[in-house]
Amino acid sequence: MSTGNPTDDGAEGLFARGAVLFDAGHYFAAHDVWEELWTGYRGPLRNFYKGLIQSAVALYHYSRGNLHGARKLWRSSTEYLRPFAPLCRGLDVDRFLAEHERCFADVMASDAPQPLAQRLPPRFHPPREGVGASS
Questions:
Q1: Domain map (residue ranges) of the chain
Q2: Which of 13, 43, 73, 124 fits a disulfide with 19 by CB distance 3.0 to 4.6 angstroms?
Q3: Could you report the per-residue pLDDT of 15-50, keeping only the tens digit for each?
Q4: Do β-strands 87-88 and 91-92 pair in parallel, antiparallel, or remain unpaired?
């Protein structure tokens, strides 16, 4: 079992596996993987992982038409992730949050938003040139 230490190979593998699942649109599976990492982790990135978990579940709710759940988790995931900008664990947090906001703009403004399949969900991206490292 992984110790949850961010330098631990098991933790790195869980983080990376969750990112691949997330980018493939398998949001609930990404949530499961990251939750396994988050559950055992007690370090400074705990809220970062929680934000990713909530982002994945927000997108899952959106894809299934649960707008109340999507809105609630979108808001909280954003609050958990924002302190880790501009970069954390190789994730361009600023870009991720901007994409997250664009994706959810319709959900936040309407009770009949476009289906998620017609939106562009956030994705993991390598850091932009010149963006400093964090954590």
A1: 9-118
A2: 124
A3: 999 999 999 999 999 999 999 999 989 899 999 999
A4: antiparallel
Q: Find out if CATH 1.10.3450.10 is the number for domain 9-118.
A: yes
User: What are the b/e assignments for 84-101, b being 16+ CB within 10 Å?
Assistant: bbbbbbebbbbbbbebbe
Single-letter amino acid, residue 16 = A
Give the C-alpha separation, 45 to 27, whole Å: 20
User: Which of these, 72, 74, 70, 52, lies nearest to 61 by C-alpha position?
Assistant: 70
> What is the structure's pLDDT at 1?
39
Q: What are the residues facing 91 on neighbouring strands?
A: 88
- Which pLDDT tens digit goes with each residue over 85-96? 999 998 999 999
Q: Single out the residue of 99, 88, 96, 10 nearest to residue 49, CA to CA.
A: 88
